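Exercise: predict the fold of this chain.
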Amino acid sequence: MSLFPADITSMAENIIHNFTAAGLMVSTAESCTGGLIAGVLTEISGSSAVVDRGFVTYTNTAKIQMLGVQEETLIRFGAVSEETVRQMVHGALFRSRAHLAVAVTGIAGPGGGSPEKPVGLVHLAAKSRSGKLVHRKMLYGDIGRTDVRLATIRTALQMLIEIV
């Protein structure tokens, strides 16, 4: 039995199996998901061959200290922005032994949104050491905190698959 829905667990199992076979390691940098991406990956037996580390950087200070996000970026663009998530994924990749990294930052709700940055807005990025980078801006809507987080996990896992 898994803590996560079957489709998410299946995606994680495929990642662990395929990345183990390819000798690939992953790191995560998570804000709005609070470590759940690393959690679903490490729920799979054998995940220690794939998951190097996860950074839970819920505050701006943590993003700066743990991932090297520039304070100026946070001031100018905010924590929930393409610019910030790009710096987060770069930090997660190069402050680990991973070949691939994924990062997420967003507004899961129910509060915290604004007209410019509504509840359900999530920025995600995946990056490989070869330099390939994928960014997605998702507008999941005000569907509830749990559903925003689960949708974010699904998107993040898909991006890890795509970045290989």
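Check your answer against the key: The helical segments are 6-22, 36-42, 60-67, 71-77, 82-94, 145-163.
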